[in-house]
Here is the input.
Amino acid sequence: MRAARDTSPSVLPLSLEDVGYAVGARPLLSDVSLQIKSGRRLVVMGANGAGKSLFLRLCHGLIDPTVGRRHWASGERRAEAQAMVFQRPVLLRRSVAANLDYPLALRRLARTARREAVARTLDRFGLTPLADRPARLLSGGEQQRLALARAWAMRPQVLFLDEPSSALDPSATRIIEEMVEQFSAEGITIVMTTHNLGQARRLAQDVAFLHRGRLIEHRSSAEFFTGPETPEARAFLAGDLIW
Ligand SMILES: Nc1ncnc2c1ncn2[C@@H]1O[C@H](COP(=O)(O)OP(=O)(O)OP(=O)(O)O)[C@@H](O)[C@H]1O
Here is the structure.
C-alpha cells in the first residue's frame, strides 16, 4: 500500500469556459467548454490534427488559453496534483530506480521516504528486476510502464495521458490499460487521448470528441458509442475519413 493520494485541496472539477487557443492568427482550439470531474475516465477522441494533444496540454496547464477561462476548483493550478505521460516517455539518462527517485527528490521528500516509495512503486508494477537498468535501454513497453509508474508515485489527483500506448504492441498495451484501470480504481481521474477505438471502448466512461479544434460531443461513453449525435463522430466511428 502507498500513502493516501494528495487530497487537499482538489483541483477538480476543472472547468473550461469558451476556451480557445490560437497561434498567431490561426485558431487551433475554439469555443471549448466542459468540466473535468473527479474520479472519471475521460477519453478524448478525434481525427489526426483535431486538437487532442493541445486540449490535453491546455488542461494540464502546459499552455494557456488565448481566449476564454480555465478554472481549477482549487483556484489555481497545483502542479503536485497533476501528472502527464506522453506518447514517447520522457526518461532521464539514469537507472529505472533513479527515474522514480528524481521527481520525489524535487518534491523534497526525505531520503528514507523516497527509498520506500521507489521500492513500493518498483514492486507494485513489476519493475524491481529492472531497477538498476538504464531507463533509456528498456523496451518501449517497459519505458511506458516506468513513465506511468513514475506518475503514479507522485500521487496525482488527475493524470493526463497522451496516446500512452500508440507505439506499443498488444501485450504492452494491455499492461498499460490495466495500469490505467488500477489508477482509476484508486480514485485518480484519468484524461487520455487514443486513436485506438477498442481501447476507447474499454477505458472510457466519458468521451470528448474534437473536430477541427472544436468540441462537438461530450457525453457518456455508452451514449457516444451507441448513438453519436454528430455526422463527424458517426463517420469517425464507422472508420470513414473526416477532414
Ligand atoms: N505550436 C503550434 N503551432 C502551430 N500549429 C500547431 C502547434 N501545435 C499544434 N499545432 C497544430 O494544431 C493542430 C492540432 O494539433 P494536435 O497535436 O493537438 O492534434 P491531435 O488531435 O493531437 O493530432 P494527432 O492525432 O495527429 O496526434 C494540428 O494541425 C497541429 O499541426
The radius of gyration is 18 Å. Residues 14-91+157-237 form a domain with the Rossmann fold fold (CATH 3.40.50.300). The beta strands are 14-23, 26-36, 41-45, 67-72, 82-85, 158-162, 189-193, 206-211, 214-220.
